[in-house]
Amino acid sequence: SFGQMHYVHGGEKRRVDHLDADPRLLERAIGVAATLEGQHVPWPAAVGWPADIPHRAPRVIVGTVLSADRWNRSPGRIWMLVERHGSHCEDMEAAAIALTCASHDVPFLTVKDVSNNELLKGSVTESGRVLLDQLGAELGRRAGALTLAILRGLATTA
After folding, report:
1. Cβ contacts of 67 within 8 Å, gap of 6 or more
2. What is the pLDDT of residues 31-67, one digit of tens each?
3. Are 66 and 85 in contact (CB under 8 A)?
4. Exposed, middle or buried: residue 98 (CB in 10 Å: 0-12, 13-18, 19+)?
5. Could you point out which of 54, 57, 85, 129 has its C-alpha 20 to 30 Å from the C-alpha of 115?
6. Hey, is 51 helix, strand or coil?
7. Segment 58-96, tens digit of pLDDT
8. 156 vs 158: CA distance, rounded Å
9. Can you count the helices (H) and strands (E) in the chain?
């Protein structure tokens, strides 16, 4: 089912079907991402880059992150969620963080470093285990650099 999310704000229970990122944080993130473009090397091909996908530099995509309470692995379900919500990826944490931020009037933005794709052969092993062990230090480095640059920029413009 696709129910609404619940949170409490000022002692009042609220229901929402989505929470928008803070416009100021989003604008800053887009600007910082543009300055970082081309500074990261492509994922190392040796850690399992899919053979049928041309090797490329990392991409920044701005859009909807779907948050779910289960790991969706069925291609049919994934495509249904993409079509319904216009999402670019999903996680299991962003909604909980967004709801907590909304409860306390704290600006919210999520930055995701997508390292696997259930729809892409080669990003998941035959046993279904994501190639996390092989990614090692690469995992999160780009999202971390973007997040740090956003925070530094906000500190200098505040």
Report:
1. 90, 91, 92, 93, 94, 95, 96, 98
2. 888 887 777 677 766 666 667 777 777 778 889 988 8
3. yes
4. buried
5. 85
6. coil
7. 778 889 988 877 777 788 888 888 898 888 888 888 889
8. 6
9. 5, 4
